[in-house]
Specification:
Layout lengths: L10 E5 L6 H13 L3 E6 L6 E2 L6 E2 L3 E2 L10 E4 L8 H12 L3 E5 L3 H6 L7 E2 L6 H6 L3 E2 L5 E3 L2 E4 L5 H11 L20 H6 L5 H28 L3 H28 L11 H12 L3 H23 L5 H29 L11 H5 L1
Parallel strand pairs: 1-2, 1-6, 2-5, 6-7, 7-11, 8-9
Antiparallel strand pairs: 3-4, 10-11
Length: about 350
């Protein structure tokens, strides 16, 4: 039993613009309301209905950043979106900083802090795409689920939301009745349950995501084994074998997460006869350069699909695992690309992609 909330009455503003990030809005919004805070959604224009990026949230702001002042609130939350272009938002956040109010930003949200010149000599984080922007603003970038520096709180992606939101609740002295909020330093905690309670990824969605990646890794594992059998160049054959071993490790780790945490069933079946026949037919008529192009396409597709999936889930441990798989594939993508360029010379063409989504159908 969580002690009775002694900080009820806290006022928190969430700053949004059209195409705001769904989960980065939904999870803090729900948790803060459950904790008894008064949550005000601030937009740029009166009477507008705002749509989220993925279309799961539609909301009419309670007020605009023009008509409120920083003194009205105890904290400000900034989900990802294009809100940095609103000068009234920048003014509001600048004044909030001067008054020592809590400012919490996630994903692309820290761009508002950059626009307000608040990151110089600070430690901060944000989505990987704005790492250089954060560093150029004078901050030390932390690859961590939540970074706290004085009254600034930042996070990288939706997968950090349970830790990010719990940190904000703690700093505001808020609690949720009958809900255990763990120490945010416990990164090994199963945070996904809080994420689910606050409108994030459900057990079913996480199970489906893991199975989708397992299907992709197992299919391409079989493909890379075939590539290694067909490769005439010894170094290329060894590279394909290394990638096969890597993908087998990925499958083992993913299945352990799926079955151990979520008690989910692995839906993968052995490579179907039709898919196997198509692959074999293609291999029979392909030269070494075509083999490299197809293999490179497999790796590139995996990197892109995993990056997208990492931005759709709110389980820190699952997202960390998927992120590791993505970075592993990206590393071998570069190795294979160098090998490909060396052998292709000027005959470089786009690789043949194989999407995880297509494999999963």
């Amino acid at each position: 039993m969580t002690p009775k909330n002694e900080a009820a009455g806290k006022k928190v503003a969430i700053l949004i613009e059209n195409q705001f990030e769904d989960l980065e809005f939904k999870v803090p919004y729900t948790a803060l309301q459950k904790a008894g805070a008064t949550v005000t959604v601030l937009g740029a224009r009166m009477n507008d209905e705002y749509q989220s990026y993925r279309g799961t949230v539609s909301i009419k702001p309670d007020a605009t950043a023009t008509e409120v002042v920083a003194e009205d609130f105890d904290a400000f939350v900034i989900p990802g979106g294009s809100i940095r272009t609103n000068p009234n938002v920048v003014r509001l956040v600048t004044n909030a900083n001067l008054q020592g109010k809590w400012i919490a930003a996630i994903g692309y949200g820290p761009q508002v802090l950059i626009e307000a010149d608040l990151l110089k000599n600070k430690s901060a984080t944000g989505c990987r795409a704005i790492r250089k922007d954060i560093e150029n603003a004078g901050a030390t970038y932390l690859d961590a689920p939540a970074a706290v520096d004085e009254h600034l709180l930042t996070a990288r992606r939706p997968g950090d939301l349970p830790i990010f939101t719990t940190t904000l609740l703690g700093e505001l002295g808020l609690a949720i009745e009958d809900t255990y909020l763990p120490d945010t330093g416990k990164h090994g905690h199963e945070w996904w349950e809080l994420g689910q309670d606050w409108g994030g990824s459900t057990r079913r969605e996480l199970t489906q995501a893991l199975n989708t990646v397992i299907i992709g890794e197992r299919y391409t594992l079989e493909a890379f084994k075939q590539y290694s059998y067909r490769a005439r160049d010894k170094d290329l054959r060894l590279l394909f074998q290394d990638i096969s071993e890597l993908k087998q490790r990925h499958v083992n780790q993913l299945e352990k997460r799926l079955k151990g945490t979520f008690h989910g069933e692995v839906t993968w079946q052995a490579l179907g006869s039709e898919a196997y026949a198509v692959l074999q037919a293609w291999l029979q008529s392909s030269d070494e350069l075509s083999l490299m192009r197809r293999a490179l396409g497999d790796l590139q597709t995996g990197v892109i699909d995993l990056y997208r999936l990492c931005n759709q889930l709110t389980d820190p441990l699952t997202v960390d695992l998927l992120n590791t798989v993505e970075l592993d594939l990206a590393r071998y993508e570069q190795k294979l690309a160098m090998f490909y360029r060396t052998h292709a010379g000027t005959r470089v063409e786009p690789p043949i992609p194989t999407t995880v989504a297509a494999i999963a159908q």
